[in-house]
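Office hours follow-up: a student asked to see two folded examples consecutively, so here they are.
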Amino acid sequence: MSTTAVSTTSRLKVPRWVVPTGIAVLFVVTYVVFRGSGTLPHDDDAPQFGAITDLREWIDSNRNSSPVFLYFLNYIRLFVGGVFDLFQTALYALGWPGLIGVMGGLGVLAGGWRIGLLAVAGVASFGVLGLWDASVDTLALIAAAVLLSLVIGIPLGIWAGLSPRARKLITPVLDVMQIMPTFAYLAPLVLFFSIGPPAGAITTMIYSIPPAIRITALAIEQVSPTAVEASSSLGATCRQTLFKVHLPLARSTMALAINQTIMMALSMVVIANLIAAPGLGSPIIKGLSEAQVGIMLPAGIAIVVLAIVLDRMMMALATRDPHAGGGRARLVGAGVLAVAGLALIPVLPSEWPEDWSVNFVAPVNEAVHWVEFHWYNVTSFIKDTTTYVLLNPLEGLLTSAPWWLVAAAVLLVAWRVSGVRPAVTALGCLLAMALLGTWEHSMQTLTTVTVGVLVTLVIGLLLGVAAARSSRFSAIQRPILDAAQTVPSFVYLLPALALFGPSRFTAILASVIYAVPPVVRLVEEGIRAVPVTVVEAAASAGSTPGQLLWKVQLPLARKAILLAANQGIIMTLAMVVVGGMLGAGALGYDVIQGFSQRPDFGMGFAAGIATVLLGIMLDRITQGADRRPSPQKRKLT
């Protein structure tokens, strides 16, 4: 019997770092060789912008002759304008005594005397701040937008909650709507609905409708299947099951949907002032354009107060037990407050007395100037260091590299992080930005977003980990996060502008303040969700607290951390674009310029679309990373 020797050749194992390092070196060499060539500099007179501006001129000239406008869009505008006028007329007819009494009565009805007194004090503060008319206009705009959002959103949410097919159909649309920064809504709506209160209400409605649909669908889905089956087995029709089972059991979650819709509407009404919507947005936009915090602060306080009053009323309504006692006492108390306010209408003047208002524009401006003068060395050091160390080098890299090299880098990173589909989507978005003529400004915006996200994630991870590991710290931090998430986004510009003046860094700081709270919450919840048995097993094996964090908690909380990164990116992008008013430049400035200067409408419209594309690109990459298996799982497979 003969034997044959089989020789096996051992494979040469290449270290894992060799391939990524080689690719990185290849990109660096390519950048050095082709630097400054293949760039796409911005051109204010690009033919794409001119074509969009010409389209607007054609639409404006044919607005009263085209059947689409005559028999469809104009009727929508008239209907929404009529709803707004109805609310505005009713609120002004109440006068300040009647509105305070009615809002106080609604507060008592929703959550008792504490909420009622909060509503009375909150509404009265509008007059004290000298912003009664602007606050009433804002309340009317919110009422009209929220009513229309709920009329459309709740039925769609119910449909999506009952039908998986409908949910699959609606979800991609809602994803895009929530990715879009607030400014991106303005340009197309101006194109079709012109400017004014109806356009502002429609813009606010479209921006605030996604949470109404999403949370309503979630509420319907969470209804116990046992209760639904029991209803069906008793012979109830689909309609009876909906109204007798689904909606009553989903009541508290649907109240949360209304609350979130109101909060989203409050975030949009300020920006809607750019298309001539009335309300508190006017002094804020004026203060931003003139860099005067004193003009902005009263309006910012009024928006915060309105947000707190409406939020507390809706949350009290959502958490109230419908079977609890005291309903008659609340009804009587609410009636007394409302009747007292209405009875004072003929006695007191409808206009808020000017002598009762406090004007602190000058003191606030003086305080800001004092801070700027005495803290100049500190604030300028922080701003200049961030600008010269992070912003300028990264912006120079992205704007001086050939467009095809940037596209290849994004494609490769997206492929590695999230997979093929997100990579193709990211590449498509980049190519669309180039075709729109917004490449250079898109890269500048990407620079500020990248720096803002990095700072947001560092702060969010530190605070989230600290809260997850210390219940006392979490208890102290949670009310601050609750208050921060109630405040409309525009208000965050106030402290940033007061400390650092108009600049790119100011926009980044405002975006960080705006985006940190949800990142902290998601990181904390992700770490707390790590199974206790796993943590105890690691601790019993002798792991130190640092090892426990880096080897166990953070890897197992990977999904929540990636979701936090996704939310941080989207929220930072939204605020950085708003920061175009603060000297951030790039796409945000282009959007504002497009609304303020009619010949630049095409540039503003294209910048709005580019902002959406940038948001979709970043969102798909991070969402894809969330769905990819962890490195440990990839090793096993």
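And the second, which I mentioned at the end of office hours:
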Amino acid sequence: MDYKPIPLKSKNDFFKNIPGSVYHCLNDQYFTMIDTNEEFLDLVGFSCEEIAMRFQNRLLEMIHPYEREDVIMKREERLSNCSKCTSNYRILCKDGSYKWILDHCRIVKDAENQETIIGIMLETTEIENTREALELTLDRHRVIMEQTSDILFEWDITTDKVLCSSHWKEKFGYELGIYKLSDCYQLPYLHPDDLPKVEKLSQEIQSRNPYLTTELRIRQKEGDYLWCRIRISNQFDEWGCLNKVIGVIQDIDEEKRMIENLRRRAERDALTGLYNRAETQKQIKNYLEQKPDEYSALFMIDTDNFKLVNDKGGHLFGDAVLSEIAAGMKKIVRKSDVVGRIGGDEFTIFIKNISSAEAAKVKAQQLLDIFHHLFEKDKQSVAVTCSIGIAMYPRDGIDFQSLYGSADQALYDAKNRGKNCYTMYEKNGRERFLNIHNSSLGAAIDSDVRVSETGPEDLVNYVFQILYDTEDTDEAIRLLLEIIGKRFEVSRAYIFENTDDGKYCDNTYEWCSEGILPEKEMLQHVSYEDLDSYADLFKEDAVFYCRDISKLTSPAQIALFERQHICSTLQCAMMENSSFVGFIGFDECTGTRLWTKEEVGTLSRISQMLSTFLQKKQAQERDHRIVSQLRNILDMQDAYIYVIDKNNYKILYLNQKTKLLDASAKPGMFCYEAFFGRTLPCVSCPLLHEEVKEVYNPKYEVWTRVHIEPFQWEKEDAYLISCYDITAYMKD
């Protein structure tokens, strides 16, 4: 015989007067319902007859399967002691959805002493959805915070003590301990050369400069030093007096060493490894500005008849000769001396602390011998000689320009005497130099100076300095592409950056010479899949050079270049952690072009600089986006969310909803002061009493359900407090 349960009454006058969704059920294994009110039926959408036929009046059958066991367990535990039971679960509705409800129930006994259950339900779907979204947000925030390796520190000026976060030991391998910052010369973990920076920083802090930055080296446990960037800001007490300094220590060792490596490479001539023209002048000038007490000697050296060497053996052979000459020069000087290539076949040697003019003449003769014997044992004999002009400091000049002018005049005298000799500048014989035309630094002297092939080292230095000093990377890159494009007379200079998945690239920067149409707008979201393994075009040196586009083997690649009217191209890959992330290119649209080795080397180095600074900019933008997104997510939550310091209850952050509730509440205030107008922590503070979950605030006349989560906020121990408005439920 089929079971036909009796439909619920839903007409009981007693239930009509109870606010909320009320049900009355047996205390059996199914919680079989006896009666309910209209609000319960409105909540689930079923009629009494539908509940009877579909669920046999069993409340348990309406509860989400995942929560049934928990509901049974809680009721067995609580109701057996005749106490109230509160459960949070989902209940099935007629439209197939589940609603979250908060169920308050208790045991009652009828006239026959039979136990039944009466319960009141409050819908909490919106609150639960908000909670889940917030938990997801907090998880994301926690992941973000755990990813950073920056070190936070605090200097308490009143006690003159410094404390650091735990990342210090992870980074450097030892505990920082507590040190007095005022006596900066006793800080054992700083590089001795950087101690003056700390003293200067301390002075600037005392001058109330709100934000300060410096870079210095900190010792690791093994004894090596890491470059770090220190950013600090001041905090003031209620009387406006400086009482604390907080800051961040960021590891920039890899960045610093990369920049130093680029700087070093920018100082060197690509072919010979000697200082380039600009750096040679800078090194000598800086030394002379110190007004040294010792003698010094400046040698101007020009290779005689070098054009004949190039004509006979070709430019590659000429490059080999210049490399050997440079190697020979370095053998007869000390590391402290300056040896530079200042023109195609011109060199300068500056010898510091030389004993006398006679010692300079001995050194000049050694140079002549090096040139004379350089290739005498080779199968292909090459006769190479040089002319040398010598000037002595301080006799012939006390600054760079005057000393160089004297050595330059002496060099021309040596050339006029028949070459392959040296001449010492003589003040008493100045009249024989008067009619000699002075050359400028790096001017051509009887040589085949191929400016574009020797590499514009001044341009490399300029590019580096612009990127290093700029505050607007975008504008600097656009300017530099124009300068580089004009300097090398290319048709187009540009940068392509890959998408995060590496499947596409976008033309993000472009400069075009006069008469060349821009292509940037047409080259967005270009698919690498359609270009036949484009990244493979870049060889081990990360350079793709094609003199004649028609010689490419891929029809897709040829079509790409032909659409842009490109005849020749030189492209340099941008790499990040050994991954291809884009490229910087230079096109020729007026005909095929032969790029020299030096041009390729120079443009490759410039491209590396651009790539390094561009990736740094991108990393900063990514970090900024992550932080902004996190704050936006918290601001979008329909809950009063704020963060307080675990140690002193000071507010560290408020979301938008909290700010709208009370515009006078600000970070830095105590939470009990801002929200309750108290001078001391609240007696019933949820932080002190775990059982307190619902809080009434008379200041705003708001009931909230409070959720507290301990976590790290910018590396500080803190509480994230989420307050859900339940005023409407409490009034009911």
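Two things to take away from it. Residues 430-456 have pLDDT under 50 and may be disordered. The radius of gyration is 40 Å.
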